[in-house]
Specification:
The chain is an all-alpha fold. About 80% of the residues lie in helices and about 0% in strands. The chain is built from 4 helices and no strands. The protein has helices spanning about 5-30, 35-60, 65-85, 95-110. Helix 1 (about 5-30) crosses helix 3 and helix 3 (about 65-85) packs antiparallel against helix 4 (about 95-110). The chain is flat.
Protein backbone atom coordinates (compact mmCIF):
# COMPACT_ATOMS: atom_id res chain seq x y z
CA UNK A 1 0.00 0.00 0.00
CA UNK A 2 1.36 3.43 -0.84
CA UNK A 3 2.56 5.79 1.86
CA UNK A 4 -0.25 8.28 1.32
CA UNK A 5 -2.94 5.58 1.42
CA UNK A 6 -1.48 4.02 4.56
CA UNK A 7 -1.24 7.44 6.18
CA UNK A 8 -4.78 8.41 5.14
CA UNK A 9 -6.19 5.10 6.40
CA UNK A 10 -4.48 5.42 9.79
CA UNK A 11 -5.43 9.09 10.09
CA UNK A 12 -9.02 8.13 9.30
CA UNK A 13 -9.02 5.61 12.14
CA UNK A 14 -7.42 8.04 14.55
CA UNK A 15 -9.95 10.70 13.56
CA UNK A 16 -12.82 8.46 14.56
CA UNK A 17 -11.36 8.25 18.06
CA UNK A 18 -10.54 11.97 18.05
CA UNK A 19 -14.06 12.98 17.06
CA UNK A 20 -15.60 10.86 19.79
CA UNK A 21 -13.09 12.15 22.35
CA UNK A 22 -13.82 15.76 21.45
CA UNK A 23 -17.59 15.72 20.97
CA UNK A 24 -19.39 12.54 22.12
CA UNK A 25 -19.34 13.70 25.75
CA UNK A 26 -21.67 16.54 24.74
CA UNK A 27 -24.36 13.95 24.10
CA UNK A 28 -23.43 11.01 26.30
CA UNK A 29 -22.01 12.66 29.43
CA UNK A 30 -23.86 15.97 29.55
CA UNK A 31 -25.43 15.09 32.92
CA UNK A 32 -22.06 14.12 34.45
CA UNK A 33 -19.51 16.49 36.00
CA UNK A 34 -17.07 17.91 33.46
CA UNK A 35 -14.13 16.10 35.08
CA UNK A 36 -15.76 12.77 34.19
CA UNK A 37 -16.04 13.93 30.58
CA UNK A 38 -12.38 14.95 30.63
CA UNK A 39 -11.23 11.59 31.95
CA UNK A 40 -13.36 9.64 29.48
CA UNK A 41 -12.19 11.87 26.62
CA UNK A 42 -8.55 11.40 27.62
CA UNK A 43 -9.08 7.66 27.64
CA UNK A 44 -10.49 7.76 24.12
CA UNK A 45 -7.78 10.17 22.95
CA UNK A 46 -5.11 7.74 24.12
CA UNK A 47 -6.21 5.35 21.37
CA UNK A 48 -6.31 8.20 18.88
CA UNK A 49 -2.67 8.98 19.60
CA UNK A 50 -1.65 5.32 19.35
CA UNK A 51 -2.74 5.50 15.70
CA UNK A 52 -2.13 9.15 14.84
CA UNK A 53 1.54 9.31 15.85
CA UNK A 54 2.59 6.35 13.66
CA UNK A 55 0.40 7.68 10.84
CA UNK A 56 2.20 11.03 10.87
CA UNK A 57 5.61 9.38 11.10
CA UNK A 58 4.80 7.19 8.09
CA UNK A 59 3.37 10.13 6.16
CA UNK A 60 6.31 12.40 6.94
CA UNK A 61 8.61 10.03 5.03
CA UNK A 62 6.97 11.18 1.77
CA UNK A 63 4.94 14.30 2.59
CA UNK A 64 5.90 17.61 4.12
CA UNK A 65 4.32 19.03 7.25
CA UNK A 66 1.81 21.19 5.37
CA UNK A 67 0.62 18.24 3.32
CA UNK A 68 0.16 16.13 6.44
CA UNK A 69 -1.87 18.91 8.08
CA UNK A 70 -4.16 19.49 5.11
CA UNK A 71 -4.65 15.74 4.66
CA UNK A 72 -5.58 15.57 8.36
CA UNK A 73 -8.10 18.40 7.97
CA UNK A 74 -9.72 16.77 4.93
CA UNK A 75 -10.04 13.49 6.81
CA UNK A 76 -11.36 15.28 9.89
CA UNK A 77 -14.18 16.84 7.89
CA UNK A 78 -14.92 13.50 6.22
CA UNK A 79 -15.28 11.85 9.62
CA UNK A 80 -16.99 14.77 11.36
CA UNK A 81 -19.91 15.25 8.97
CA UNK A 82 -21.35 11.72 9.32
CA UNK A 83 -20.66 11.87 13.07
CA UNK A 84 -22.54 15.16 13.38
CA UNK A 85 -25.49 13.96 11.31
CA UNK A 86 -25.90 10.36 12.45
CA UNK A 87 -24.50 10.28 15.98
CA UNK A 88 -25.17 13.79 17.24
CA UNK A 89 -28.41 14.12 15.21
CA UNK A 90 -27.43 17.51 13.78
CA UNK A 91 -29.20 18.66 10.61
CA UNK A 92 -27.39 18.41 7.30
CA UNK A 93 -26.45 21.94 6.30
CA UNK A 94 -25.13 23.45 3.11
CA UNK A 95 -22.24 24.79 5.19
CA UNK A 96 -20.84 21.24 5.23
CA UNK A 97 -20.71 21.30 1.43
CA UNK A 98 -19.01 24.70 1.29
CA UNK A 99 -16.49 23.71 3.97
CA UNK A 100 -15.80 20.50 2.06
CA UNK A 101 -15.18 22.42 -1.15
CA UNK A 102 -12.77 24.74 0.65
CA UNK A 103 -10.89 21.75 2.03
CA UNK A 104 -10.77 20.19 -1.46
CA UNK A 105 -9.22 23.42 -2.69
CA UNK A 106 -6.67 23.31 0.13
CA UNK A 107 -5.81 19.70 -0.74
CA UNK A 108 -5.32 20.66 -4.37
CA UNK A 109 -3.06 23.60 -3.61
CA UNK A 110 -0.91 21.82 -1.02
CA UNK A 111 -0.37 18.74 -3.21
CA UNK A 112 -0.36 20.28 -6.71
CA UNK A 113 3.43 20.53 -6.95
CA UNK A 114 4.00 16.83 -6.46
CA UNK A 115 0.76 14.97 -7.11
CA UNK A 116 2.61 12.43 -9.27
CA UNK A 117 5.35 11.96 -6.67
CA UNK A 118 3.24 11.08 -3.63
Amino acid sequence: MSTILTTAFLLGLSNIFMTFAWYAHLKDLSAKPWIIAVLVSWGIAFFEYLIQVPANRIGFTRMDLGQLKILQEAITLTVFIPFAIYYMKQPLRSDFLWAGLCICGAVYFIFRGNIGVV
